User: Which sequence fits this backbone?
């Protein structure tokens, strides 16, 4: 069994899908096998959730006591994994890439391995969250707040936060969703989630470390 294999606890067969093993089978080396396997599982989860779940390209953590979750959306390669690793040491790690929200506005945990640089490696390594000291999830987590992250290396000072109106929030989040058009009344589901959680916050920041106090303000100190 590969390290981290048991960490994916969503039952794919109950959702009517299974991983495309051809992605993993085509891996050219042991180092490539884990990323390919993770990618295959992620694709299967998205396929299984199509028409059922709101799905975002985002990360999420939850308070270890109340299980209230914060979802933070941003394009790929902009620091969600770094932020998830940082926050997951204090809050429950739910996922760093694909957030699935059910009809009860709960995040369904997908605690996939994180692609991080480790000492002694010259490339990123798919690393199980428990090996990084991240807190395990406690099952579906009610969404408390949604953030749209805007990393700015030129920003000085702490994070800049402002509330977005509903239309702008919907328009910003649509490109970061998966299979929204296949979801019955998908736009209404998205708008309903935003309204139920008090609106979306746009957050400009420079360093991931500066966001920890904001998360604590939103869902409480762990």
Assistant:
């Amino acid at each position: 069994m590969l390290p981290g294999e048991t960490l994916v606890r969503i039952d794919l067969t109950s959702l009517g899908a299974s991983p495309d093993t051809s992605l993993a089978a085509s891996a050219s080396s042991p180092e490539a096998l884990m990323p390919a396997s993770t990618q295959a599982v992620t694709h299967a989860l998205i396929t299984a959730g199509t028409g059922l779940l709101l799905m975002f390209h985002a990360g999420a953590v939850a308070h270890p006591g109340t299980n209230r979750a914060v979802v933070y959306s941003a394009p790929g390669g902009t620091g969600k994994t770094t932020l998830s690793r940082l926050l997951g040491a204090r809050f429950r790690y739910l996922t760093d890439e694909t957030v699935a929200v059910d009809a009860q506005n709960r995040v369904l945990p997908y605690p996939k391995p994180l692609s991080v640089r480790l000492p002694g490696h010259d490339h990123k390594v798919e690393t199980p969250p428990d090996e990084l000291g991240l807190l395990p999830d406690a099952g579906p987590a009610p969404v408390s707040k949604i953030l749209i992250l805007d990393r700015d290396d030129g920003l000085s000072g702490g994070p800049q936060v402002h509330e977005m109106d509903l239309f702008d929030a919907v328009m910003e989040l649509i490109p970061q969703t998966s299979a929204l058009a296949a979801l019955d009344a998908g736009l209404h589901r998205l708008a309903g989630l935003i309204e139920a959680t008090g609106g979306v916050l746009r957050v400009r920041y420079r360093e991931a470390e500066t966001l920890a106090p904001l998360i604590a303000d939103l869902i409480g100190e762990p």
Summary: Residues 1-15 have pLDDT under 50 and may be disordered. The first helix runs from residue 12 to 15. The first strand starts at residue 54 and ends at 62. The radius of gyration is 17 Å.
